[in-house]
Amino acid sequence: MTSRFEVSAWSVLAALATMLASTSCLSAEVAHFAPHRAVYELSLANSTAGSGVSDVSGRMVYELNGSPCDGYTQNMRFVTVMTNQEGTETVSDLRNSSWEDANGKKLRFSSTQYQNDELADSSQGDAARSKGPTPVVGVDLTKPSKKRVSLPTNIYFPMQHASTLIKAAKSGVRLFSANLYDGSEKGEKYYLTSTLIGNEYVPGAKPLSPAFKGSDKLAAVASWPMSISYFDADKTKEDQVPAYELSFRYFEDGVTSDLKIDYGEFAIKGELKELTFLDPGKCPATASAH
């Protein structure tokens, strides 16, 4: 099972969306992310008879640090215990770490996944946009093997994508499409994504329930319901079913709640249980905001 928290679900979207976004119509305002640690309780939302999944439990811990000057670091651990219809349990432990500069020009990533305490997959590398008249996005992989990978020039990195979603939401955009790369899938794959953005919840309009440690600090923060569909980039998108979909409530400061990861035959939900805001990164007084 593949799991992704970008800021990443991102076929029903086309019917619901009212406009297609492009970066040229977005607000120029910078998205300000609040460093924080969020703990989510994972459980089975639903499953079909043919999925083979009868129960899911687990926890996800996500931490964001950094600033517009130093870039942003994301760390995530996603642990699930999945039970099949015969009662057999499979423990999956996914650990992701990344650093991305605030301009979306560089991405450094590392991802490791264990199943039943045995290493199942790992990837590590650096992605960067080259300078010059002919821009190139290249990835130098060190795991699972040394390899050079080329990506489309219109690729979005995770924090760059997250920032753009906030700008799109504040500009009233309903649908935003983007190629997204985060270094997963052995570092060689990117996804075509379509994000449906709902109407804004103004501060205090929809309190989180039940309350939890740190929930009161979100009362003054605007938010939007979002749903991201992820499509395989190596397949024709026409009539293609998403590889999976991710839906959530996205707060303007980068916090997410009401998570749901839908794989088609079954879905996992994540309930935000604990939120701790961390010390904000500081920029020199002379530094320009990116």
Strand order of the largest sheet: 8-7-6-5-4-3-2-1-15-14-13-12-11-10-9
Q: Tell me the number of helical segments per DSSP (H or I, 4 or more residues long).
A: 2
Fraction of residues in β-strands = over 45%
Spans of at least 5 consecutive residues with low confidence: 1-25
Report Rg: 19 Å
Approximately how much helix is present in the residues?
Answer: under 10%
User: For the terminal residues, how far apart are their CA atoms?
Assistant: 36 Å
- Counting DSSP E segments of at least 2 residues, the number of strands comes to 15
Largest sheet: 15 strands, mixed
Structure description:
This protein has helices spanning 13-16, 158-170, and strands spanning 36-47, 53-67, 71-84, 89-100, 106-115, 118-129, 137-143, 147-151, 155-156, 175-180, 191-197, 223-232, 244-251, 256-262, 266-277. The radius of gyration is 19 Å and the shape is globular. The protein has one domain. Strand 3 and strand 4 form a beta hairpin. Strands 8-7-6-5-4-3-2-1-15-14-13-12-11-10-9 form a 15-stranded mixed sheet. The longest helix is centred in the middle third of the chain and has 13 residues, at 158-170. The protein is mainly beta and 290 residues long.
